[in-house]
Write a structure and sequence with these properties.
This protein has 182 residues and is mainly alpha-helical. The protein contains five helices and two strands; from the N terminus they run H-E-H-H-H-E-H. It has helices spanning 5-26, 42-48, 50-87, 93-147, 170-181, and strands spanning 37-40, 151-154. The chain has a two-stranded parallel ribbon. Helix 2 (42-48) crosses helix 3 (50-87), helix 2 (42-48) packs parallel to helix 5 and helix 3 packs antiparallel against helix 4. The longest helix is centred in the middle third of the chain and has 55 residues, at 93-147.
């Protein structure tokens, strides 16, 4: 599940700036040995926690229902198009023009339905995952305090290109999240 790429990029930029400030002299008294950095993959965590799996399954069921509705509408439009192509030579100019207009209207309705359903699913996903991500952030803050992390970054496809073993805190986040929810 991809959730709000622009917000993720903004958070990443802020986190990287903070990391640079800490590492490159933002804290004059801190030595490189005092800085402890980790990262979590929030998408992986979301897909791994029990609550995330339930949310994903529910969203997939809703997607399937919407897809059926969209497919039915698409089949209707395709049927109209085929009928028009088959009967075009036998129809009067006015009748053909009327069917073309009706077909165009139905195609536009299909496109609008697709966009509406896509928007609804994105909104439902954002609403369903917001509270999960909020709880994860609280757990991450607790982990940082308990284990002495200076900074914990969010790993995305375009960030954290390399990290030493032991810096990935995702498994610990998932374990704590599931334990807190049981």
């Amino acid at each position: 599940m991809k959730v709000q790429q622009s917000n993720t990029m903004s958070r990443l930029a802020v986190a990287l700036l903070m990391a640079m400030a800490v590492i490159f002299g933002g804290l004059a008294t801190a030595s490189a040995q005092d800085v402890k950095i980790g990262y979590v993959d929030m998408q992986e965590a979301l897909n791994s926690i029990e609550e995330g799996k339930r949310v994903k399954a529910r969203l997939e069921r809703e997607f399937a229902q919407r897809q059926e509705r969209l497919d039915a509408k698409q089949n209707e439009v395709m049927q109209m198009r085929q009928e028009l192509e088959q009967q075009a030579m036998m129809l009067s100019e006015d009748a053909r023009r009327e069917r073309v207009t009706t077909l165009q209207t139905r195609m536009q309705e299909l496109q609008e339905l697709y966009l509406q359903l896509q928007s609804e699913l994105a909104q439902q996903e954002a609403e369903a995952t917001k509270s999960i991500f909020d709880r994860m952030r609280g757990i991450i803050a607790t982990m940082a305090r308990e284990q002495g992390y200076t900074l914990i970054l969010e790993r995305t496809e375009s960030s954290v290109l390399y990290a030493a073993d032991g810096m990935n805190l995702t498994t610990e986040l998932v374990r704590r999240y599931n334990a807190a929810r049981n």
